[in-house]
Automatic annotation (TrEMBL), chain A:
The chain crosses the membrane at residues 6-27, 39-58, 84-105, 117-134, 140-160, 172-191, 245-263, 275-294, 301-319, 325-347, 368-386, 406-432, 484-507, 586-604. Keywords: Electron transport, Membrane, Mitochondrion, Mitochondrion inner membrane, NAD, Respiratory chain, Translocase, Transmembrane, Transmembrane helix, Transport, Ubiquinone. The gene is ND5. Residues 134-416 form the NADH:quinone oxidoreductase/Mrp antiporter transmembrane domain. This is NADH-ubiquinone oxidoreductase chain 5. It is found in: Mitochondrion inner membrane. Belongs to the complex I subunit 5 family. Pfam families: NADH5_C, Proton_antipo_M, Proton_antipo_N. The keyword Transmembrane helix applies.
Automatic annotation (TrEMBL), chain B:
The keyword Cytoplasm does not apply. Its EC number is 7.1.1.2. The gene is ND4L. Core subunit of respiratory chain NADH dehydrogenase (Complex I) which is composed of 45 different subunits. Core subunit of the mitochondrial membrane respiratory chain NADH dehydrogenase (Complex I) which catalyzes electron transfer from NADH through the respiratory chain, using ubiquinone as an electron acceptor. Part of the enzyme membrane arm which is embedded in the lipid bilayer and involved in proton translocation. GO terms for molecular function: NADH dehydrogenase (ubiquinone) activity; oxidoreductase activity, acting on NAD(P)H. It is a multi-pass membrane protein. It is found in: Mitochondrion inner membrane. Pfam families: Oxidored_q2. GO terms for biological process: ATP synthesis coupled electron transport. Belongs to the complex I subunit 4L family. One of its GO terms (cellular component) is mitochondrial inner membrane. This is NADH-ubiquinone oxidoreductase chain 4L. It comes from Panthera leo. It is an enzyme of class 7 (translocase). The lineage of its organism: Eukaryota, Metazoa, Chordata, Craniata, Vertebrata.
Amino acid sequence: MNLFASFMLTSMLMLLLPIIMSNTQLYKNNLYPHYVKTTISYAFAISMIPAMMFVSSGQETIVSNWHWLSIQTLKLSLSFKLDYFSIIFIPVALFVTWSIMEFSMWYMHTDPYINRFFKYLLMFLITMMILVTANNLFQLFIGWEGVGIMSFLLIGWWYGRADANTAALQAILYNRIGDVGFITAMAWFLANMNAWDFQQIFITQHKNLNIPLLGLLLAATGKSAQFGLHPWLPSAMEGPTPVSALLHSSTMVVAGVFLLIRFHPLMEQNKTMQTLTLCLGAITTLFTAICALTQNDIKKIVAFSTSSQLGLMIVTIGINQPYLAFLHICTHAFFKAMLFMCSGSIIHSLNDEQDIRKMGGLYKPMPFTTSSLIIGSLALTGMPFLTGFYSKDLIIETANTSYTNAWALSVTLIATSLTAAYSTRIMFFALLGQPRFNSLSPINENNPHLINSIKRLLVGSIFAGYLISHNIPPTTIPQMTMPHYLKLTALAMTITGFILALELNLAAKNLKFKYPSNLFKFSNLLGYFPTVMHRLPSTMSLTMSQKSASMLLDMIWLESVLPKSISHFQMKMSTIVSNQKGLVKLYFLSFMITLTLSLLLLSFHE
Amino acid sequence: MSMVYVNMFLAFIMSLMGLLMYRSHLMSSLLCLEGMMLSLFIMMTVTILNNHFTLASMTPIILLVFAACEAALGLSLLVMVSNTYGTDYVQNLNLLQC
């Protein structure tokens, strides 16, 4: 009981050690990845102790260490909030990161800068920990920006590739738009409540909290890739697969949802914000599920799946269930990271082939990857009593039995069936059927790093839902009684999605592909959103500014109106009117002779 | 009439002759124009000072201003001619085209 805060801070301080060691000889030899991985596994083990203390006693802690500065009446200090959300999220994040580090020891084995890769991943993890344990908005913003920057560095890991640089820049730009909302909220809280500490914000009474909550919603839209600021997430798949597994499925993209969960005491009184959140999440989950149906890159399908699940988390916040959203964050991390790692295993085995139309028949050559991919997909779609069931099914049941927007509810249900549909598509094209890849592919999954890491997440995908949901303290009570058709809705939608997708895939397997229909084009080109929004506003604003500043002001008002028009007019008139011959010297001479003659005549006059 | 005035009047006549009779360069007629302006200025100033005609004391300055404007105009014409032909020979001005 006494060592609660010490253990937690120790576990987070251990993560800093490999960064500090990067100036020494340890960084230069090839044992550094192993060192980093072991550090994270020890940090996970140590952080389980406070987690179990919390589970048994419900004790929460706020650690305020160091008073940094006071700006008139605002006091900024380094403080860690170790409450329900942080204590459960940190072991989950460390466990998933441990598996991903071990996986990248296999995946990035031939990379000459593998030490730097591990350092970047570790720095990302540290900033994520800062974000999660922050007790004031300033520290949270430090973590927020930190994960953004590490995301940029890691997406552009292979910086020689132009697409990777574009994707990294796109991620930064979209996140920046969300940061505007974050800073608006910070400024509003500073001006109206004189505090950036959560405790003071939640206690102070205020009538209309729309502005800061809108700012926080914009921040969540940017960071968690909701509709409107979503194109950066599929583009972020340009980074290596461990980066996609860690950042863009489990940890960074849930930062936006985490922010909204942190502010749930403010959100549960504001009906407008809840409706906005609900509709935003609903449209995100449906739109990205539609886009995932026709993609051909296996990592992009999983990225859209992540985006769809994030929309589901935002929907959960919209129906005023922050604890369920948090449970979904924790369970989603397991199977989504595992899905990415299985795709990485397939990609490496097929010699960096990412197109599912060129995979197939991996059921026999790669049995372990196949089984973990299938279990991951089943957990994702919410198969009863796997991990996803404990969070996803509860969310659908609560949405069904609550007094909510019928459109948002039906859209969420449709997206649930689409989840099953695209998962079936992945499994059908990548695993089943006859092989469509090159004959001499080096298919080998016999590496212990790969097998152990996926095995750990596999066990997590099966059991973590049960373990977590039976050990957490009671929060909002889930709906216990409902009609049987409502209870079975999620399962029915999922089974519908599975059967429909399987039938369509089997029926169309050997048909010739003629011309894409309009609906296909809409889905494949991501709803035309990047095509329109990346080109139209920039072209319009640049053309408008060129026309108004350069054409209108400079060339017309300052050049053409007076100077050029006068000179043009004069030249034209002079060429029309004059009929002289230009004998200048003769004219001058005749002038002088006239003068002299007149002078002589008049002077010698009488 | 005193010698000063005759002297300056003669200078004016010399410059006028130079303006009206020049061989090839346009620049020489512009220089003679300046000479005319100079002699007029001195004549005007000496007359005003000798007759204590205080109210007209600003007239030389006004003359200077107008002479400056005309010199600028003359020079710009010279520059236009020089841009087109490379030199300022008067025999080039036979085309009547800008």
